[in-house]
Design a protein that fits this description.
By secondary structure, this protein is an alpha/beta fold. The protein has two domains: about 210 residues, Spore Coat Polysaccharide Biosynthesis Protein SpsA, Chain A (Alpha-Beta Complex), CATH 3.90.550.10; about 90 residues, no CATH class. Helix content is about 40%, strand content about 20%. Strands 1, 2, 3, 4, 5, 6, 7, 8, 9 and 10 form a ten-stranded mixed sheet that branches. The protein is globular, with a radius of gyration of 20 Å. The model has no long low-confidence stretch (mean pLDDT about 90). It comes from Algoriphagus marincola HL-49.
């Protein structure tokens, strides 16, 4: 292995014993082999460490944390800090890559040598059925794409983001790469999306490869996205202001719209999970986004039982 690999692959691990062999194997079986694999054991209490130690590949570097951090964000930040590679690629411990993923991402990096952020398509898998993500389905016949912050936010408003954690790659030399994930804000979910927003708001672009790089397994154990409490910490005005330092007025207005939609989404998700949800009215972004804010303000008074009924009806309509 070279002293400086092209990719540093970071996998945070917290109680993923039944799945970690699959994710590690999918990295080691890549057609592009110039990488190191950084595993951060986030104080697992199951057999995750024993499963990791079954692998003897010299490219694997193992780091231990003594206390698990919410969402694995501190573990990912540690992985970035320890990375030797030019590019840091992320993979969740319960997901897997297709063998050609790093090869395609390497080709993309060579085609766009000045970029700092890359993504591609992925599949979700549940009950043995795999589905491609929405952005990929709309753009799979395109060649590689360069996506601006404006287009990124517009796609986000349509729930068609071009990146997800297990296909995201960031250049380590990016000024926002260190402490990329919000480990200090107490959020247990949503930190990945916040990290990608940080990259987009600073660099104003992402490049996207039209290949399917990973499988997101929706039925894994100990899934943060299914269990974590709902809170609005990451959508607070202070975090919003930190993102807008280099944005145009048009981009700021779009970001407000994006934040308002996320506030409403998190609130509804909390209701569906029977979780204690905060009043999101106090977080709304009214300036330059008055119509959305007014609608969401009145929506917030909707009885929780009615929200659940409407969601069930929407789900039935989608299925038919």
């Amino acid at each position: 292995m070279q002293d400086i690999p092209f990719f540093s692959v970071v996998i945070p691990v917290y109680n993923k014993g039944p799945h970690i062999h699959r994710s590690i194997s999918s990295v080691l079986n890549q057609t592009f082999q110039d990488f190191e694999l950084i595993l951060v054991n986030d104080a697992s209490t199951d057999n995750s460490l024993e499963e990791i130690q079954k692998f003897t590949d010299e490219r694997i570097r193992l780091f231990q944390r003594t206390e698990p951090g919410p969402g694995g964000y501190a573990a990912r930040n540690l992985g970035i800090e320890k990375a030797k590679g030019e590019w840091v690629a992320f993979l969740d411990a319960d997901d897997e890559w297709y063998p050609h993923h790093l090869e395609k991402m390497h080709e993309l990096a060579q085609k766009y040598p000045d970029v700092y952020f890359m993504g591609c398509g992925w599949q979700t898998e549940k009950e043995g059925v795999k589905k491609e993500n929405a952005f990929y389905k709309s753009n799979k016949n395109q060649t590689a794409l360069k996506i601006s912050l404006t287009d990124y936010l517009k796609n986000g408003l349509s729930k068609k983001l071009p990146v997800w954690t297990s296909v995201a790659c960031v250049r380590k030399s990016s000024p926002v790469a260190l402490n990329l994930f919000p480990a200090s804000l107490g959020a247990k979910r949503g930190g990945d999306l916040h990290a990608w927003l940080k990259m987009m708001c600073y660099h104003k672009e992402i490049v996207w490869s039209n290949h399917v790089g990973a499988v997101y397994h929706r039925e894994s154990i100990n899934m943060v996205t299914m269990q974590a409490e709902i809170n609005f910490n990451l959508l607070h005005h202070k975090n919003f202001n930190n993102l807008t330092k280099n944005l145009t007025n048009k981009e700021i207005i779009l970001l407000k719209k994006y934040f308002n939609r996320k506030l409403k989404h998190e609130w509804i998700l909390g209701i569906l999970r029977n979780a204690q949800t905060a009043n999101f009215r106090q977080y709304l972004y009214w300036k330059n986004n008055y119509c959305d804010s007014l609608i969401f303000y009145f929506v917030s008074f909707t009885p929780k039982k009615l929200i659940k009924i409407l969601f069930i009806i929407k789900t039935i309509i989608k299925q038919h």
